[in-house]
Hints:
- Keywords: Initiation factor, Protein biosynthesis.
- Seems to be required for maximal rate of protein biosynthesis. Enhances ribosome dissociation into subunits and stabilizes the binding of the initiator Met-tRNA(I) to 40 S ribosomal subunits.
- The chain is of the alpha+beta class.
- It contains four helices and five strands, in the order ααβββαββα.
- Strand 1 (27-37) and strand 2 (40-45) form a beta hairpin.
Amino acid sequence: MPAEEQPFESTEEDVSRVRMPNIKEGEMFGIADQLLGASKIKVMCEDGVSRVGRIPGKIKKRMWIREGDLLIISLWDFQPDKCDVRFRYTRTQAVNLSKKGKVPKSLDVF
Length: 110
């Protein structure tokens, strides 16, 4: 019987399937702080800086971003105080990443 239960168990593979920030491309974790309107959002980044983030239409049309969501953001090269939102984690994904220790301590509110 244990062979039947195995597909339902949570394993390390679940975390590896979730998208992680690519540091080489300037991506990092962030928490949605405040919705500003006009596809803009205030994001608290893992380096402790609060930035204005732009939500691209591709993400805006598919998923809603609410305050307190864990995000992957990429910094702008020419304006380091601004960023683009690349990915939003669901609540379950964020809690699982937090349990595994993948989320930095400065952002760990889950």
